[in-house]
Design goal:
The structure holds 2 protein chains of 2 kinds. Chain A is an alpha/beta fold. Chain A folds into 2 domains: 131 residues, P-loop containing nucleotide triphosphate hydrolases (Rossmann fold), CATH 3.40.50.300; 237 residues, P-loop containing nucleotide triphosphate hydrolases (Rossmann fold, 3-Layer(aba) Sandwich). In chain A, 34% of the residues lie in helices and 25% in strands. Chain A has a 6-stranded mixed β-sheet, sandwiched between helices. Chain A has a 6-stranded mixed β-sheet with strand order 16-19-20-13-21-22, sandwiched between helices. In chain A, helix 9 crosses helix 18 and helix 14 packs across helix 15. The relative contact order of chain A is 0.11. Chain B has a domain of 211 residues. In chain B, helix 2 runs parallel beside helix 13. Classes of the chains: A alpha/beta, B mainly alpha. Chains A and B meet through helix 11, helix 12 and strand 18 of A and helix 9 and helix 10 of B. Chain A: InterPro entries: AAA+_ATPase (IPR003593), ABC_carbohydrate_import_ATPase (IPR050107), ABC_transporter-like_ATP-bd (IPR003439), ABC_transporter-like_CS (IPR017871), P-loop_NTPase (IPR027417). Chain A: Its main location: membrane. Chain A: It is a peripheral membrane protein.
């Protein structure tokens, strides 16, 4: 094994043999507390090619990319760069060894110019040690000419469109003479014409002999730009094929071809009247013309890949980020849900996707975390909280949900993820909702707690609650839902009944 | 079998017994005792006198920090929401001027409002409180509706309120206040007002919905919003209360000095923030108690008296005060980290 420093030195000297593969990853394993994110994964990137990575959310694509880009180091397995075994210790290490990641959330400094952003830490200096702005400009223009990018190098990055910022990121990566470029869903924010321009640049990079790792959810892009495609599922490597040799159906089958072994206990309960009815709900640029009904006792699953707008629909329903047009009616009455308070008054509850960011009050204790929503209109007289009563209710909820803690006065941050989630569910159950929106209710939770939460959701449905459940886990969606609504790029692409739904059908609607 | 029967009831007994943890104020209270004891010992060594066993000194000790204490009760609430209030000192100056101008006696030939002399004592008090509340409402509204950081909104108010205070009488002090008004600041009254205010807001923070929402917003503003809390409206309330208490401090201070001066309360906001922070209020929000703030305020008072008692220069006092503020926060973060690991 050679050190990154030696490797860098050798590369600068131009003495690296032209091996066929830029990158060879073999038998890589990476575990995080509680989950194995990657298990025995292999991956090879050819010189002058675009290699697409596909898989469902949580299949392990991003973890693999982060290993290649030096963000994580693998627990085991071998990692060869241009034929030599190497160990990367940081993203900077990776960058200086010719591996550049074009980030999804762009990492540029908005108040610096395009040129300054590209050459940061490497600015050309004049005789006095100051930045030589003319040289900076010339170097940038030269780089842009090579890539056929037309952006003024002296404009502030903050003034650029998302597409142009992405171009700058790519140019920056190329400026490091990187030959491995990682693009994570680069077209998610681009218009069709911008995508075309991006593909031109990618082809130019290919012609220069660079290798591009391209993560995408979009089938049509895959067939347009990729030479090879590797599919991942549940942290495992499924296979690699030439893009010309496979069809869309083949890939979908590779992505979802798992056995459903876990049991999901959604009971058959009588489905009641329509409780929530949504018509043509639109939030400009995010989701469009969403229409659906949910009935009492029904669980409506909401499936779709990350970025399809599922969570945005939930946030709009609950008034967190209200929709710009459309109609929501509850029990047949039109309601204008502008704030979460209005949603709650109409019997809604919303378990958010991100426990830490929008769920828990980490520094407060369990009791306070649980009572915070219900205090809006119960257990308070003349401003004073009926402490004993609330505590009794919370204690009952703790028993019912089997929250494992010695003491409700414990800070919630000291609980496990599963127990935190139960506390948050308890927070909403105290408000006795008629419509319950759950966004990834079992993400990052151990199997035992997961089963308990599934049982609980099913129980609520049988009590007549209308449930909307967003989930990225196919088995969960299939097992729990009476009906499944599938979204793709901000639009509903179809509904599937419990009887007809399958992983393949969902994926066909979700990845068009 | 027999063993199970023995162990089971024992377990059951343990559960309902709530494991009451020591409140975090205990630590800071021990620090207070420690500092007081150091002065006591030094007192015997240096001057041959007791530091603590002197009623007059104990009264003065708390009296001189009562005004700071009233402000810090409001500032604590602001900091719990994750904000900051830099305007309190200036609002003290402004409200002192306004209240004093309505508390003048007719014996004085050059009253600010010659037609409004010899007013009932309630008038200047209410005017001072109202002016403070308005300043707080402006702070809160700016933060809630424009989304600018509390630091900036209250920095603006700090500069502007001081300006208004000076403009109010073109820089002239307001004197010749009525005896009734002066009573508010005399004797033990400021201490009583401070402690009553502290008690009211201690109860408000712990037992009312207002208090729960205040902590919730500081702990996680996004989660508070999703839980149905009207965050903007609540923040306006909290800043208005902080303004009201600054107004009260202005009234007490002008009554105690029997005059209103535009320069009153300079840098008081910093002492008030220091008292809250020493008392365990976390600048990242969601954590803090009024009891802690009261102890923090008294620590500031003990230090001032102690140094005066030992006839040590005020310079050293400021140096030590600075060190204690930083040490309090360092100790707090250390505790937090240990807690998180546990």
């Amino acid at each position: 094994m050679i050190s990154p420093v030696t490797m860098r030195a050798v590369r600068t000297a131009g003495a690296i043999p032209n091996s066929e593969f830029l990158l060879e990853v073999e038998g890589v394993r990476k575990a995080f507390p509680g989950v194995v994110a990657l298990d025995d994964v292999s991956f090879r990137l050819k010189r002058g090619s675009v290699h697409a990575l596909m898989g469902e959310n949580g299949a392990g694509k991003s973890t693999l990319m982060k290993i290649i880009a030096g963000v994580y180091s693998p627990d085991s397995g071998s990692f060869k760069l241009r034929g030599n075994e190497i160990e990367l210790n940081s993203p900077l290490d990776a960058l200086e060894n010719g591996i550049a990641m074009i980030h999804q959330e762009l990492n540029l400094m908005p108040f610096m110019t395009v040129a300054e952003n590209i050459w940061i830490r490497r600015e050309p200096k004049n005789a006095f040690g100051f930045v030589d702005h003319r040289a900076l400009r010339d170097k940038t223009e030269e780089l842009f000419d090579r890539l056929n990018i037309r952006i003024d190098p002296e404009i502030n990055v903050g003034e650029l469109s998302v597409a142009n910022r992405q171009m700058v990121e790519i140019a920056k990566a190329v400026s490091y003479e990187s030959d491995v470029l990682i693009m994570d869903e680069p077209t998610s924010a681009l218009t069709e014409r911008e995508v075309e321009h991006l593909f031109q640049i990618i082809r130019a990079l290919k012609a220069e002999g660079k290798g591009i790792v391209y993560i995408t959810h979009k089938m049509n892009e895959l067939f347009e730009i990729a030479d090879e495609v590797s599919v991942f599922r549940d942290g495992r490597y499924i296979g690699t094929h030439k893009a010309d040799d496979v069809t869309r159906d083949d890939i979908i089958h590779m992505m979802v071809g798992r056995e459903i072994t876990q049991m999901f206990p959604k009971e058959d309960v009588p489905i009641g009247d329509v409780v929530l009815s949504v018509r043509d709900m639109t939030l400009k640029g995010v989701f469009h013309d969403i229409s659906f009904d949910v009935r009492a006792g029904e669980i409506l699953g909401l499936a779709g890949l990350v970025g399809s707008g599922r969570s945005n629909v939930a946030e709009a329903l609950f008034g967190v980020t209200p929709a710009t047009s459309g109609e929501i009616s509850i029990n047949g009455r039109t309601v204008d849900i502008r704030t979460p308070a209005i949603a709650m008054r109409n019997g809604m509850a919303f378990l958010t996707e991100d426990r830490k960011d929008t769920g828990c009050f980490l520094v407060l204790d369990i009791l306070e975390n649980m009572q915070m929503a219900v205090l809006r209109d119960k257990y308070v007289s003349r401003g004073f909280v009926a402490q004993a009563e609330v505590e009794r209710e919370c204690e009952q909820m703790r028993e019912a949900l089997r929250i494992k803690t010695p003491d409700l006065n414990e800070r919630i941050e000291n609980l496990s993820g599963g127990n935190q989630q139960k506390v948050l569910i308890g927070r909403w159950l105290l408000t006795r909702p008629r419509i319950l929106i759950l966004d990834e209710p079992t993400r990052g939770i151990d199997v035992g707690a997961k089963a308990e939460i599934h049982r609980l959701i099913s129980k609520l449905a049988s009590d007549g609650v209308a449930v909307i459940m967003i989930s990225s886990e196919m088995p969960e969606v299939l097992g729990m839902s009476d009906r499944i609504m599938v979204m793709h790029e901000g639009r509903v692409t179809g509904f599937l009944d419990r009887a007809e739904a399958s992983q393949v059908k969902i994926m066909e609607l979700a990845a068009q | 079998m027999a063993m199970e029967q023995v162990t089971q009831p024992a377990q059951r007994l343990e559960r309902p017994q709530r494991r009451r943890k020591l409140p975090s104020e205990v630590n800071i209270f021990l620090v207070l005792i420690g500092i007081a004891l150091i002065f006591e010992i030094l007192g015997w060594i240096v001057t041959g006198q007791s530091f603590l066993f002197n009623r007059q000194r104990l009264l003065v000790m708390i009296l001189q920090v009562s005004v700071i204490g009233i402000i810090s009760v409001g500032v604590t609430q602001v900091i719990i929401t994750g904000g900051i209030d830099l305007s309190s000192g200036s609002v003290v100056g402004l409200t002192a001027m306004i209240a004093a101008s309505l508390a003048q006696t007719s014996d004085f030939a050059r009253a600010v409002y010659p037609a409004l002399t010899d007013m009932p004592v309630l008038v200047p008090i209410l005017a001072g409180l109202a002016a403070g509340t308005v300043a707080g409402l402006i702070n809160g509204s700016l933060i809630a509706y424009t989304g600018i950081p509390p630091f900036i909104a209250t920095l603006g108010m700090m500069v502007a309120a001081r300006g208004v205070a000076k403009w109010y009488t073109r820089g002239q002090p307001v004197s010749m206040l009525s005896d009734n008004y002066a009573t508010i600041g005399s004797g033990i009254w400021p201490v009583v007002i401070f402690l009553v205010v502290a008690l009211i807001f201690h109860i408000a923070l712990r037992y009312t919905r207002y208090g729960k929402f205040t902590y919730a917003i500081g702990a996680n503003m996004q989660a508070a919003r999703v839980s149905g809390i009207n965050v903007g409206r609540h923040l306006i309330k909290v800043y208005a209360i902080a303004g009201l208490l600054s107004g009260l401090a202005g009234v007490v201070l002008s009554a105690r000095a029997i005059s209103g001066q535009a320069g009153m309360g300079v840098a008081y906001e910093l002492d008030a923030i220091a008292a809250a922070v020493i008392g365990g209020t976390s600048l990242s929000g969601g954590v803090g108690r009024i009891t802690g703030t009261v102890i923090g305020t008294i620590i500031l008072g003990v230090m001032t008296s102690g140094f005066t008692f030992l006839r040590i220069d005020a310079y050293y006092q400021e140096i030590v005060k600075g060190i204690i503020i930083v040490a309090a926060v360092v100790a707090d973060q250390y505790r937090q980290r240990k807690r998180r690991k546990a």
